[in-house]
Amino acid sequence: MSRPLRIEYENAFYHVMNRGRGRENTFLSDDDFKYFLYCIEQASLRFNIEVHSYCLMTNHYHLLIKTPDANLGRAMKHINGLYTQYFNRAHNTDGALFRGRYKAVLVDADNYLLHVSRYIHRNPIETNTPLVEDLAKYKWSSYPAFIKRGATPKWLVRDFIFSLQGKKRKYEAYKQFVEFENNKEISAFYSAKKLLSVLGCEDFIENIKEHITTSDSERKLISKKHSADDVIAYLAKHFSVEVDGIITVKKGRKEKNLPRWFAIKLCQDLTGLNLQALADVFNVKHYSAISKTVGRLNELMIEDKKVKLQLEKLRECLISEVKI
């Protein structure tokens, strides 16, 4: 049996979904739901993905994702893998948690993104056994955040969906759209026995054909690999510091060494080196120090958007090889 098409290109939108193996539950407690959201947060920081809607059900999930860097596969591998490891530890199980590879539908944003977001948010009441009567009360969905009835995760992107409606009263307008409007074409699309890989108009489908790739060809539309030396040299020049100041651990140093933190993060994202190889490059005894450093940077980026923007700019420049 051939594997499904994988269509990846910069700034693409996807409706991503997966369910438990054998339709078994993938979320057994509030802690499980919370940890999956944490996995999404980590992926958004590490792989620069944008999450525009989400809904976590008891035995499956739905995500609406934009990939500025054409790296959906890497981001989803991280989310599913990290959560599966957690779930097996927490519930004393082992083996695969999800039913094979995730399903990803490439979405024509101009014509269908708003409707896909509606479809995702209506999942809790569209099942055979509705989980809630009031969508706003389902807390494992981004819908409450879209209608200002719940907290908004820092990584959730809402403005683009709102812009597609073009109305001033965005919260109320979106609520009315989700709860009272319908689209027969969308209903038919998701009711099909075999879900297609693309949801779009004819022109959209024609335009993305050149990006279609299969697992057999292994043709990836991603940036070429960088060497760790190139990344480190680039950051040393940008921050006007010595390379030694980036690759050497400063004992007793308490202040944030952002050039080093950025270098570790970008080497992890762009070089393809594993944690042990990165530990060798950055002169630490154990690879766990790499993960801890990336974790500290991720926390800092959540607290300070300027740091996140700075990292994104550096990544863009490295990928395009344009000097800052």
UniProtKB/TrEMBL annotation:
This is Transposase. It holds the Pfam family Y1_Tnp. InterPro entries: DnaA_C, Transposase_17, Transposase_17_sf, Trp_repressor/repl_initiator. Residues 227-297 form the Chromosomal replication initiator DnaA C-terminal domain. It comes from Pseudoalteromonas prydzensis. The lineage of its organism: Bacteria, Pseudomonadati, Pseudomonadota, Gammaproteobacteria, Alteromonadales. Residues 9-123 form the Transposase IS200-like domain.
